Automatic annotation (TrEMBL):
<feature type="domain" description="Cyclic nucleotide-binding">
    <location>
        <begin position="20"/>
        <end position="116"/>
    </location>
</feature>
<keyword id="KW-0804">Transcription</keyword>
<dbReference type="InterPro" id="IPR014710">
    <property type="entry name" value="RmlC-like_jellyroll"/>
</dbReference>
<dbReference type="InterPro" id="IPR012318">
    <property type="entry name" value="HTH_CRP"/>
</dbReference>
<dbReference type="InterPro" id="IPR018490">
    <property type="entry name" value="cNMP-bd_dom_sf"/>
</dbReference>
<dbReference type="InterPro" id="IPR036390">
    <property type="entry name" value="WH_DNA-bd_sf"/>
</dbReference>
<dbReference type="InterPro" id="IPR036388">
    <property type="entry name" value="WH-like_DNA-bd_sf"/>
</dbReference>
<dbReference type="Pfam" id="PF13545">
    <property type="entry name" value="HTH_Crp_2"/>
</dbReference>
<dbReference type="InterPro" id="IPR050397">
    <property type="entry name" value="Env_Response_Regulators"/>
</dbReference>
<dbReference type="Pfam" id="PF00027">
    <property type="entry name" value="cNMP_binding"/>
</dbReference>
<keyword id="KW-0238">DNA-binding</keyword>
<keyword id="KW-0805">Transcription regulation</keyword>
<dbReference type="InterPro" id="IPR000595">
    <property type="entry name" value="cNMP-bd_dom"/>
</dbReference>
<protein>
    <submittedName>
        <fullName>Transcriptional regulator</fullName>
    </submittedName>
</protein>
């Protein structure tokens, strides 16, 4: 495993494409970059495991990470698929409990790691900035509430469409959604708790309706009526 390396100069601009980071106190932005190190991961390599000790705040800066876990029967679930420049790991930072899920590289990836001890020490001296950490957790809680509502109320085709939109928006971390998503049908099936065959059928229905195009290795979102950028509403946010 290659040793962690310092964060490269100029990373601040790229990180600012994330809504949470760009809205953080400038002092926190600077401290995150000062403390951060880059961890290089090979395809399939674990960043951390469910139940493991929390070692800090993380951000994908290259590649992608699969966030999920194995159930009692040994079947894998996929909670989230994270791309640059999405932050995660704040739950264990806040409550000081073990990691809630596994994080595994989906191909060669790089992750920014901000070590827990030095970051907590700095936050102790800047208590007002804890509000920024709470915002990161609250953003994900809102996404979870919407996903639970969709699970109970919507047919599979609409659930697939909205999950694709959520991934395209970086779980509400991007103002401008991505049009092309490199997410496998197997991964979508794990996210939604259904079979790959059911996902394939739902995607074909969405494609026939002009909402997306299926390409080799990626899905292109076209919008609600086949128009690029004309995305359907993602569902109500809960306060």
């Amino acid at each position: 495993m290659p040793p962690p390396t310092p964060a490269p100069p100029g990373l601040h601009t790229a990180l600012s494409s994330d809504e949470w980071f760009s809205a953080c106190d400038p002092a926190l932005q600077s401290e995150l970059l000062r403390l951060a190190r880059i961890r290089h991961l090979a395809a399939g390599e674990s960043l951390f495991a469910r139940g493991g000790e929390a070692d800090g705040l993380c951000c994908v800066v290259a590649g992608a990470l699969r966030i999920g876990a194995l159930n009692a029967e040994g079947h894998s679930s996929l909670l989230a698929w994270l791309e640059p420049y999405q932050w995660f790991g704040e739950i264990s930072l806040i409550d000081e409990q073990p990691r809630t899920h596994d994080a595994v590289a989906d191909g060669p990836s790089q992750v920014l790691l901000v070590p827990r001890g030095p970051l907590l020490a700095w936050l102790e001296g800047h208590p007002a900035v804890w509000r920024d950490m709470a915002r990161l957790a609250c953003r994900k809680l809102r996404v979870l509430f919407v996903a639970l509502e969709e699970l109970a109320q919507l047919p599979l085709e609409e659930r697939v469409w909205r999950r694709l939109q959520l991934v395209a928006r970086g779980y509400d971390s991007r103002d401008t959604p991505r049009r092309h998503i490199r997410l496998s049908q197997e991964a979508l099936a794990q996210m939604l708790g259904v079979s790959r065959q059911s996902i394939n059928k739902a995607l074909k229905t969405l494609e026939a309706g002009g909402r997306l195009c299926l390409h080799y290795g990626e899905i292109e979102l076209l919008g609600a009526n086949g128009n690029p950028g004309s995305a359907a509403p993602a569902g109500p946010a809960m306060g």
